[in-house]
Design brief:
The complex is a heterodimer of chains A (about 650) and B (about 100). Chain A is built from 25 helices and 17 strands. In chain A, the strands form three sheets. Chain A has a seven-stranded mixed sheet with strand order 1-7-2-6-5-3-4, with helices on both faces. A five-stranded mixed sheet of chain A has the order 8-9-10-11-12, sandwiched between helices. In chain B, strand 1 and strand 2 form a beta hairpin. Chain B is globular and about 30 Å long. In chain B, strands 1, 2, 3, 4 and 5 form a five-stranded mixed sheet that branches. In chain B, helix 1 runs parallel beside helix 2. The chains are: A alpha/beta (about 650), B alpha/beta (about 100).
Amino acid sequence: MTAVPASIPRRQALGFVQSLKEHFSPGTRYLVGPPRRGKTDLLRQMYLLQAGDPDGPVPIWLQPGAGPEGEQFLAQLIAFREGSLTTPSLTLDRSALLSQADVVALDDFLHDASRGEPERFFAALGRWAAGGKPVCLYLDDVSPAWLRAAGAPFGIPVAVWAAGLAAASPRDAEVISLEELTTREATLLGENLARLAGVEYDHEAAEGFCAYVGRDPFAISCTVRCAARRETASARALTQEEHFAAAYVDELATGSLGHYFESVIAQLDAREREFAREWIAGGLDARRLAAWRHRVDVETVLAHLRRAELFNQGWVAARDWAAATRDAVPQTARARMHARLLADFTAARQADQDASLFDRIATGLRSLTPEARTWLAEQGIPGARVPQVCSVAWEPLPGGALFLAFGSGSGAAAAGGVNGGLLAVALILGEDAALPLEQFRQRVMACAPHPARLELWLVLRHPTEASAARAREAGVRLVDYEIFNRLIARPAATAGEGPAGAEEIVLQLPLAPDFEIAAVRVLDHLLERHRVEKRAASQVRIALVEACLNSIEHGRAARRKGGQPGGAATPAEMMEVRLRLSEEEVTMMVSNPGPPFQPKEKEPGSALARGHGLKIMHSLMDSVSYESDLKGTRVVLKKRFSVSEATANDEQATSGIQRN
Amino acid sequence: MSKLQVVSKETEGGTVLYLRGYLNESGGEELERQVNELLRSSPASLTLDFSGTAMVNSIGISFLLEVIEAAQQANTLLEFVNVPEDIGELFDLLGISSKVPVRP
């Protein structure tokens, strides 16, 4: 077995690759390094060497980050069978000749794979593609999920080589770092490239450049290209800033930086790509920045570029690739431009007050008041279409925000309801002329847990007949803007106060078997008074039983320890059950004077079956917490629910649930 | 809520045990005792009827798991019938539904 080093110096990379030809060992190895370090190139060298060896493992190349994994794989596979495969990002060599039946079966399977079951995908890949031969799978730019799946057992020997950023290093793989060029190697590369381009290589600039962005072959070649361009007659006629812009456009169109940049922005939509190209090619002045802010979410695009390490958080910082290759431009000019852009952007953000509004809306969505629910019902929106308990996230949309409210998912929901699913609300505050309905739908579909439990709402501050018609066509429910006035107008609850209309009862019960029944009887009375829905009431009842059992077990253990097998319970042998209930929520606190609670292993048939009890409580309630101090232990259970509703009568046709 | 009563009846389809009341620790012990006694004769099938079961707690469920294992070892086909919705949800939650047929 080839000993895999922890890091690979670039000068030894080729030798390392060749050594792999002699040895094949199953396992997962993860090649890490910053972008443009050369990881992909190294994997390709390994792949090509194996492809040229008919007696070795079957090499398969897969680039999951390039698009829908399953569809891409299938397209490449079909092209390969038809002999039309030209420049594949996925290649099946030699023995991967599948029958039509295999392709059809794979097509069915890949629809599951595209929904995030890479484990099955890889298992099928091993069986179908290799015909029993060992496989060497190359994964470029993978997510940790794909890498974990790739490491699963195949049934045939499989070696996995994957490349990605160090931050995504999986725990189970051997991690190998690809080192940057040494100073000598970078100089040698630069001199060779400059000689080929017919220009003089600027060693001082190269040294400064390498210190700025790291010694990557990518960076070296970009520097040489800019230097070569500066030598042309047309470039000499330009002003410094004009040359700057021209150099960038040219580099983006033809150079290695351009290829990398295009691969990064491929995941953006058309308008965002246009913005990104304009920014990285020539920067933005205040006027253009202001114009773009109403067409794209500038921050989202810049965040995307930051994640790809195209520039750093501070804008004017190292690893700003656009700035780095502008060495052709005088330092002072570059600094002035960046400072101006930074000031303009900062001023624009400080003037944007929408973020605080969105936070308030998200809070309101997270805990809808009965009044808000009543209003929604009056608007013709059934309760089943509104999540009972939400975790809410929001992200900017052009002109507004997208709110994603995930409903409580414990147990099965009523057919068609969104509990356990997603309510997505697009709020547009500006003019709706450029209504981003398709973008809204695409973003929501990417995180919709189940198509049958998805509700799409559109809220417009300035609705028009045209926008209403577009919403209807798109299958999105148009909700009156009044909903947000109701959400953000709710009074803030002060600390220590429960919801309005809450009723609290405190019980002191012996720490003895079956006294949980007494607690449940009182709870049933409260649940009925507050008209809690039947299923939620049942869940709360079951959870209370388990919490009481927990306390009773502690009491029994403490009494046995203290040598008190019987007799009337003393105050130290009582549990306190505090029930606080309103139409919105229930809080149950069960306290006992025992030692701190520690979950124990299940012992079926005895009183220590606590594993089941804990699981029950955590599954049926929204939150379960334990508090221990010198006085004893308390378990606190909370659950939010809606007012009693006839869910069976809430099934009316909705316009919000469609899926492309 | 009454203490669990386990009532046995012979039917054409085999023995049916009716569980009436609260399946807690004491009820679970009684249920296990009766099931083990029945399993000595290695019956082909055994049915537990939950139509009269008011509530099941986690300790009762642990006894049910013991009963399931005992039936498997005796090669006796075990099924749970007339299971109320809330108890069925508990069975789903704790994996009982994957070990034995559970019918509402």
